């Protein structure tokens, strides 16, 4: 998978060299390129923001550097008839910006390139969305800062490729960088070959719609706390039943919203 990230804080993504994803990059499974949005400016101060039309607090990211960055990554529009010029710029409909598409279908695949703008105004990122995006050939992440990006950037990007606005959840971050790191980790670890033991992916929180069961290792007693006896008896049927009960009890207690309506 190829990933391009556009940001005004490129060093934020230095951490991608570490650990599991760093290995995937060395192995050629993941090809990540980070682009500094300011390299697509032309003024002395490398300005990326301006005051909002209509007034209001904060600053808005200007469209011109974003347009140039997207053209550099997606390829220039070379043909006057509007057909696509650049590498990876397959005609893919260009879904309307912010359109909510079904993500709970595990078999859905992403053809070609998708452009993702992290935004608290987007659809919420889920494990199902991570699974779907792990099938993409090419993901472009556009990290906004300040009060947001000029709306026309989303429309232009949507004229080139599929675009989605994606939120991590119902709270506010200062910019998209932390959200993109989280999304890349969630997506990257689902790409075949990134995780050594794919079976470890199966029994995780959210993969079966429930939270995961509690885990224990030696010693059997520690500081007066015992491991639940069912786990030490070697009865695999009883262990499976107990783990399922624990998953259901935990999910009912802290995440009842994940359970089907009764
Ligand atoms: Cl994706 N971006 C920002 N700025 N804030 C967020 C978010 C994204 N998701 C939750 N809060």
UniProtKB/TrEMBL annotation:
Superkingdom to which the source organism belongs: Bacteria
EC number per UniProt: 2.1.1.228
Quaternary state and interactors: Homodimer.
InterPro entries the record matches: Alpha/beta_knot_MTases, tRNA_m1G_MeTrfase_C_sf, tRNA_m1G_MeTrfase_TrmD, tRNA_m1G_MTases_N, tRNA_MeTrfase_TRMD/TRM10
Function: Specifically methylates guanosine-37 in various tRNAs.
Domain tRNA methyltransferase TRMD/TRM10-type as annotated: residue spans: 1-74, 111-259
Family listed: Belongs to the RNA methyltransferase TrmD family.
This protein's UniProt keywords: Cytoplasm, Methyltransferase, S-adenosyl-L-methionine, Transferase, tRNA processing
Catalytic activity: guanosine(37) in tRNA + S-adenosyl-L-methionine = N(1)-methylguanosine(37) in tRNA + S-adenosyl-L-homocysteine + H(+)
Main location: cytoplasm
GO biological process, one term: methylation
Any one GO molecular-function label of the UniProt entry: tRNA (guanine(37)-N1)-methyltransferase activity
Protein residues bound to S-adenosyl-L-methionine: 144, 168-173
Protein name listed in UniProt: tRNA (guanine-N(1)-)-methyltransferase
Organism: Subtercola frigoramans
A Pfam family per the record: tRNA_m1G_MT
Subcellular location: Cytoplasm
Stretch forming the signal peptide: none
């Amino acid at each position: 998978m190829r990933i391009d990230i556009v940001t005004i804080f490129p060093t934020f993504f230095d951490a991608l060299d570490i650990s599991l994803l760093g290995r995937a990059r060395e192995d050629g499974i993941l090809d990540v390129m980070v682009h500094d949005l300011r390299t697509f400016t032309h003024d002395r101060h490398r300005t990326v923001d301006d005051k909002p039309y209509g007034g209001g607090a904060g600053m808005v990211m200007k469209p011109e550097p974003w347009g140039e960055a997207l053209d550099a990554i997606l390829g220039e529009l070379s043909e006057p008839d509007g057909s696509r010029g650049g590498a990876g710029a397959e005609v893919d409909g260009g879904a309307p910006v912010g359109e909510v598409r079904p993500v709970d279908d595990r078999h859905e695949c992403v053809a070609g390139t998708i452009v993702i703008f992290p935004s608290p105004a987007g659809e919420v990122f889920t494990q199902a969305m991570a699974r779907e995006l792990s099938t993409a050939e090419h993901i472009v992440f556009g990290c906004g800062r300040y009060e947001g990006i000029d709306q026309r950037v989303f429309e232009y990007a949507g004229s080139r490729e599929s675009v989605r606005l994606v939120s991590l959840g119902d709270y506010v971050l200062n910019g998209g960088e932390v959200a993109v790191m989280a999304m890349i980790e969630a997506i990257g670890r689902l790409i075949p070959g990134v995780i050594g033991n794919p079976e470890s992916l199966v029994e995780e929180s959210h993969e079966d719609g429930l939270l995961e069961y509690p885990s224990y290792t030696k010693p059997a007693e520690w500081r007066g706390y015992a491991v639940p006896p069912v786990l030490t008896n070697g009865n695999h049927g009883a262990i499976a039943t107990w783990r399922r009960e624990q998953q259901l009890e935990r999910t009912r207690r802290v995440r009842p919203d994940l359970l089907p309506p009764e």
